[in-house]
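Problem: given the chain below (213 residues), write out its structure.
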Amino acid sequence: MTAETSQTLDRGLRVLKLLADTDHGLTVTELSNKLGVNRTVVYRLLATLEQHALVRRDLGGRARVGLGVLRLGRQVHPLVREAALPALRSLAEDIGATAHLTLVDGTEALAVAVVEPTWTDYHVAYRAGFRHPLDRGAAGRAILAARQQPLEEPGYTLTHGELEAGASGAAAPLLGVTGVEGSVGVVMLADAVPERVGPRVMDAAREVAEALR
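Solution.
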């Protein structure tokens, strides 16, 4: 800690990070041990975070991330969308297909940015806000592939007809972006995705990841 930083705020943020990294919550004693501070300090931190709905405690007294964090998270989408648009525009124009950035929202895949090509006679209408299960469609499957191979680049994922009859998709996961789990992809009206599309989608995913770092 330096003179320009707040020790209390630092501890509160550390509490949120610790809770975000566990599925079953943490007790006051566990938080005290992990933070290296006494239980009284932890109680005060939790009480303050609870007032802002950033933390909740269950009947057993375990602290968990609160719903207030979701409200903050929603404000991230416009920033992520803005950062991703240049790479998506380039991808859509190059491939001649609708390009999209998809993020994880709970158990679903949520399209947060979509760019359609300007020069094609027809293309798939794919709108920002579109949701689908993570295990259907190239965008969600690419994210799941990255979860299964966290230490290596899983490449790209191809699908056909899973979300829309006659449409094929290709997607690659965003890698190395702290706090963001998602993918970049294209969707096109075709029986199969051309060979060059997969590597091009991977390049676009790298560009978006770099813009978000």
